[in-house]
Each structure stands twice: as C-alpha cells, then as structure tokens.
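Work Package 3 committed the consortium to producing structural models of liganded targets before the mid-term review. Because experimental data for this complex are still outstanding, the team generated a predictive model from sequence and the ligand definition alone, so that downstream docking and mutagenesis planning could proceed in parallel. The input record is reproduced below exactly as it was submitted to the modelling pipeline, together with the SMILES string for magnesium ion.
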Amino acid sequence: MSTSATYSRSSRESASLIGQRRDMPPAYTEVHSNSTDQILIAVMGATGAGKSSFINLVSGSDLEVGTGLRSCTRGVDISSPFTIGGRTATLIDTPGFDDTNLSDTEVLTIISLFLSTIYEQGGVLNGVLFFHRISDVRMGGISRRNFNMFRHLCGDEGLRNVVIVTNMWDEVSEEQGLARVQQLANEDMFFKPALQLGAIMLPHDRTIGSAQEIVRQACRNTPVVLRLQRELVIENKSLAETAAGMALDEELAAQTRKYTEELQELQAELDSVIESHDEQAANELAKAKLDMEANVKRINGERQKLGNSYAKEKGAMTNELELLRQDLQQERAATARTSANIARLRRRSEQQFRYDQEQMARLAQSATDIEIQQRQRARQRDGILNMVIPAVLRLFHYAQLHVLRR
Ligand SMILES: Nc1nc2c(ncn2[C@@H]2O[C@H](COP(=O)(O)OP(=O)(O)O)[C@@H](O)[C@H]2O)c(=O)[nH]1
Ligand SMILES: [Mg+2]
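The resulting structure, written out as tokens with the ligand in place, is given here.
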C-alpha cells in the first residue's frame, strides 16, 4: 500500500499550511501584470526534487522526467497552459543548482534570462514553488545550496508568493515526515526565516488534488517582482552585481581559494618526493596536481562566465526577440491584408450576386413584359380580327346583295 494513503487527512491538514498568511501589504509590486485570468508560476528546487513530475501531473504536459541522478530539464521548460479556477495557468520548469548538464553559472544565467525577459515583456509571476523532498534525511548540501540561491533570487519581497512544496511523502513514515516538517519550519538554518517573511509550506502527496490545491494557492497571490528581476531590469545591474550573482561568485571564489591551497600543498609534497626520488609517488602527485589545476581553471572560467555570459546571451536573446517581433508584425500585417482582400472579394461577390439577382429579376420582368405585350398584341390582333372579319363579312354580304340585285 502506498504510504501516501496512510498520510491521513488530519495529519495532512496539520502539515498543510505552515507559514504566515499573506494579508500583509505587497512589499514590492509593479504596475504591469499579466491579464488577470493568466497565471504564471515558476517551479524551482534541486534536481530530482520532483518538479517536472508535478508540472506534468497538474497541467497534463509531457515534460521529461528524470530516471536516475541525471537531470533532464535543459534550461527552462514551459508547461501546456491549463485551466484552474476559471483562469489559465502556465508553469515554468527550471533547472536546479546541481544540474548534471549545466554548471551553476549556466543555471543562474538561464533563470536570469528567463526572469528578466518575461518581466520586460509584461509578465509577472503569481507564485514560485520551491520543491523539497521530505524523504531527504536532512537538508543536505544540495538542498541548502538550492534554497540559498533561491532566497537570493527571490529576495525578501518575493517570499510572500512562495510555496515551499514538500513531496516524496510516500518514501517516509507519517511520523518521520511530520517531524521533518516541524524541524524545517522551526529551525533558522532551514525554512523558518522564509516562513516568517510570508512563504508557506504545503505537502504534495502526488495526487492531482494536492497539486491543484498548491497551484490554487499561488493563484490567490498578488503578482510580485522578484529581487533578481528588479536588479536586472529596473536597476540595470549586471548578473554578477545581483544578490544571487554575488552569492554564487562568493561560492566560486571560496572553491578557488580551497583548490589553490590544496594545489600549494600538493606542490610542497611533490617537491619533497622529488627530493626523495620516489618516482611513483611523484607521478601520482603530478597527476593530482594536474587535476587540481584543471579544477582551478574551470572555476575561474565559471567566474568569468558569471561576469559576461548573461550580458552576451541577453543581447542575443533581445535580437532574437526583436526578429521574432518583426516576423510577427509582418505576419500580422500579411494576415490583415489577406483579411482585407477577402472582405473586398466578399463585398464584390455580394454586389455581383445582388446585381445578378437584379439583372435576373429585370430579365424576368422583361420576359413577363414581353409576354404581356405579346398577349396584349394577340388580344389586339384578335380584337382587330374580331372587328375586321365581321366588317369584311358584312362588306362581302353587301357586295353580294348588290351583285345579286343586278
Ligand atoms: N517516490 C516518489 N517519487 C517521485 C515523486 N515525485 C517525483 N518522483 C520521481 O522522482 C524522480 C525525479 O523527478 P523529476 O520530476 O524528474 O524531478 P526534477 O528533476 O525536479 O524535475 C522521477 O523518477 C520521478 O518519478 C514522489 O512524490 N514520490
Ligand atoms: Mg525536471
């Protein structure tokens, strides 16, 4: 039996809503928003947290779902739009900051490109879902890193539209799950600060009902501009200057420091084994040193990328969008021309039809007139004949009488 079935109603209710209700005034709302019946929700969290599965379940989409530890969301993915509470919702799937195909810099760049572009195009997020596996024994490195990056890109102001979704309840006992919820909600190093700033925590038990309830919760929000959107679009910062960019750069810098120290230690060891002529140890250390140098190079490359890839990609994306917009305009103009031509043709054929009908009516009338005339003429002729013949007959009669009399 699935453990989700044993996740009883009362305990689900007790865990169902943790965090403050959002009757607080918006900390930072922007003037423009999606049309009121359009809902846009971003879904974030570590790789394998169940984001794509959730999106597929609630929207009927067919996004790729992971089978092992490898991630499959390459960049941002968009669900099919679906109707909920009479409104049309679209969910945005994002890669986690532990992706097997993308570096963290690439993940942040992709999320930044999406968030800034959608905001520039007049779209705002009604909510952000952060997925956390309740089956994780503790909020380990990956979950914590993902949540840290998430906190930086949402900012305090974005948290009131955040739902922390706990899932994979079928992999823990009810007691374990509820104890973990309490721990996550009550400890400063976990979700407590976010919950105090307006985020809420809801469980997802893999049923469509719980998925819809989570989406409905996000539909009730007033759309909010996330910190990363404000920094990139309104304050025109570079990605490296944003809170999320700085946090990631700090992490990369710490990694560089660590690798550089290890490299120095390796070098010292290598010097001593070279002195002691231990060739095998020297070879092993030289190889370890090469690996470490490659690590330092990779991390430095990531830091450089963090400094310039967003601007480069953003430029390319803006050009692409401009071309698409032009294409769309041309298509719209062509459609408008075609519609005008069709309307003109329709008017003309209607005119022609009316004209033809009038002509036909006129012809029919003429035919009737001719018939009438013919009938009249026939009647006249008959009349004339009727008058002439008796007259002729009479004349003949008189003439006859006259002859006979002679
Ligand atoms: N046991 C269990 N597995 C789940 C649940 N949700 C998703 N999964 C599985 O977790 C794996 C990763 O899911 P996926 O949706 O690809 O996660 P993503 O990387 O966050 O998009 C897949 O094998 C899913 O079938 C759940 O609630 N319980
Ligand atoms: Mg996925």
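Reviewers should note the following from the model. The chain is about 65% helix and 10% strand. These observations will guide the Year 2 experiments.
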